[in-house]
Write a structure and sequence with these properties.
By secondary structure, the chain is α+β, with helices and mostly antiparallel strands. The protein has one domain. About 40% of the residues lie in helices and about 20% in strands. Strands 3-2-1-4 form a four-stranded mixed sheet. The chain has a two-stranded antiparallel sheet with strand order 5-6. It is globular and about 45 Å long. The protein starts with a strand and ends with a helix.
Length: about 130
C-alpha cells in the first residue's frame, strides 16, 4: 500500500511511504530486518523520491486501526498495490471512527483535519456502493 504525501500531495512529496503487511512476524528484529531488506531492494528502482518502508504483520496492522495510530494517516489517501486481506473493509471502521470525532495531525507546520478528510472519504465510499452517508 502506498500512502502519505506521495498520494494526497504528490507535487510536494519528499518520499514514497510504503506499507507492507505480511502474515506474521516473530519479533521486532525480524520486522526491522525486513524493512531494511525491502528498502535496499527498492533503492535499485529508479525513482524521483526515496521509499520509506513500514512493515506490519496482519495482527499488528489490525491493532493499529484506531484513531491516533500510524494507520490514521490512511484517511488522507492511499493506493493499494496488492491486497489479500480485504484492506478496504478493514480500514472502513477506522475511517468511520475518525469521521465521528475531531482528529488532527500536524505536518510541516500545517494542521490537517483528518476528520474532514474521513467524512469526504466516506461520502466517496458510500457513493460508489450506492449507500447514503
Amino acid at each position: 500500500m502506498i500512502f502519505g504525501s506521495s498520494v494526497f500531495y504528490p507535487v510536494k512529496a519528499r518520499d514514497i511511504d510504503l506499507l507492507i503487511i505480511v502474515d506474521k512476524l516473530s519479533n521486532a528484529v525480524e520486522k526491522f530486518n525486513l524493512e531494511v531488506e525491502i528498502s535496499k531492494a527498492l533503492r535499485k528502482i529508479e525513482s524521483k523520491a526515496p521509499f520509506d518502508v513500514t512493515v506490519f504483520d496482519s495482527g499488528s496492522f489490525r491493532e493499529n486501526l484506531e484513531p491516533g495510530t500510524l494507520a490514521s494517516g490512511l484517511v488522507a489517501g492511499y493506493r493499494t498495490v496488492y491486497d489479500e486481506l480485504g484492506l478496504e473493509k478493514l480500514i472502513e471502521p477506522l475511517i468511520v471512527n475518525i469521521a465521528l470525532g475531531e482528529y488532527f495531525v500536524q505536518k510541516s507546520g500545517r494542521r490537517i483535519n483528518l476528520s474532514v478528510l474521513a467524512r469526504a472519504k466516506l461520502r466517496l465510499l458510500y457513493a460508489r456502493s450506492g449507500n447514503n452517508v
